[in-house]
User: Which sequence fits this backbone?
């Protein structure tokens, strides 16, 4: 039996680059891409940011005429950097199933908030708001609807926001649409643009690091925020789709511990539940997982809670890596960004490194991968844990993998 739903297209764009292939190559080479926050906007404190290079909308205009109704925002430009790369696969799916059977599910944590800031509180280091901007363009649904039309997806269209787990909740929604017979394929996309509100918010919580994030390190000091987009195309399993599948979504798990507005349960209760649920739905055991792509934010509490959860779920010290050390925390895009990098790791048979982990925190019961590690990979578990205990985990597998 094939592993769940076929992933037939994938693309990312973030601080590592706007071209999917180049961004993946830089990630697996351990490329450094963070820059001081003062280069993006004015902040009265030190921080590092993962700024995406030159999104088209940063100058106030995207080149696609059908995006005029979402003000051609920076958010839309960041999303389009991935969308344009995925478009050929989406067109093939539309020919295969019919455009009305291709759904579109979009996720974001901040929506067009950066453009709203430009309109209400201009910053000399940021371009002005687009001349056509209206407050309703701030909504996540504005960008979602415009890009769905741009891709020619005529099926069901949804927009979802559940903080850092947004993109995995969108993936779960797309899978449900296929499983319920409401679609045969679904474009799952996510994008978030950096904005001052987010940076000041994490700083006020004491979660923002003044230096580049160091997940699972003894000297970890907090989050490095980033921006970017990630898209995948999932399709109903058939001989045609599996022949050119990149990977398979074997199982998705979701849980909410509701322990605190912003802090995780210290034992990672919600994380344990959703990891076990993803494993059960994938039909694999913890011993089948080759590595865990952790949420790994680099904060004291989150890393400790996730390490505790991983240690309780897995029967051995499974290898763990944290791709936010490469891309920064891309908020609603974080889960799908890590998943696309996991797909690339399955292709390369290589686990990407966690940067800046030394000196490792020996108090955390996890084996963190601190350098590129080759090996035969079949199944990867990816975590995305959000505020309020909104947690999700996904098992992604080689297309040839068989479920028990």
Assistant:
């Amino acid at each position: 039996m094939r592993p769940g739903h076929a992933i037939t297209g994938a693309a990312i764009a973030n601080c590592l680059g706007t071209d999917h292939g180049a961004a993946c190559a830089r990630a697996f080479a351990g490329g450094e891409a963070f820059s001081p926050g003062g280069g993006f906007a004015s902040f009265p404190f030190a921080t590092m940011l993962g700024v995406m290079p030159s999104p088209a909308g940063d100058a106030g205009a995207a080149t696609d005429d059908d995006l005029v109704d979402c003000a051609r925002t920076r958010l839309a430009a960041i999303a389009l950097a991935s969308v344009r790369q995925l478009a050929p696969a989406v067109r093939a799916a539309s020919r295969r199933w019919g455009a009305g059977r291709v759904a579109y599910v979009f996720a974001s944590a901040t929506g067009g908030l950066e453009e709203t800031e430009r309109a209400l509180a201009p910053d000399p280091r940021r371009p002005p708001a687009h001349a056509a901007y209206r407050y309703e363009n701030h909504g996540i649904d504005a960008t979602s609807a415009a890009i769905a039309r741009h891709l020619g997806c005529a099926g069901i269209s949804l927009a979802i926001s559940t903080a850092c787990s947004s993109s995995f909740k969108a993936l779960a929604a797309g899978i449900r649409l296929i499983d319920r017979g409401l679609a045969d394929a679904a474009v799952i996309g996510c994008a978030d643009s950096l904005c001052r509100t987010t940076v000041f918010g994490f700083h006020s919580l004491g979660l923002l690091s003044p230096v580049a994030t160091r997940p699972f390190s003894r000297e970890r000091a907090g989050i490095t925020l980033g921006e970017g987009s990630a898209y995948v195309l999932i399709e109903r399993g058939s001989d045609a789709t599996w022949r050119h599948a990149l990977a398979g979504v074997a199982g998705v798990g979701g849980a909410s511990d509701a322990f605190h507005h912003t802090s995780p349960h210290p034992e990672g209760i919600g994380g344990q539940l959703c990891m076990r649920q993803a494993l059960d739905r994938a039909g694999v055991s913890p011993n089948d997982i080759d590595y865990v792509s952790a949420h790994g934010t680099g904060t004291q509490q989150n890393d400790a809670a996730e390490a505790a959860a991983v240690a309780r779920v897995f029967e051995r010290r499974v290898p763990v890596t944290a791709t936010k050390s490469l891309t920064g925390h891309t908020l609603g895009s974080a889960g799908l960004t890590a998943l696309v990098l996991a797909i690339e790791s399955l292709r390369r048979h290589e686990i990407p490194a966690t940067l800046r982990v030394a000196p490792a925190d020996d108090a955390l019961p996890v084996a963190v991968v601190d350098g590129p590690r080759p090996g035969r990979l079949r199944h990867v578990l990816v975590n995305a844990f959000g505020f309020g205990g909104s947690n999700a985990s996904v098992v992604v597998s080689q297309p040839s993998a068989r479920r028990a």
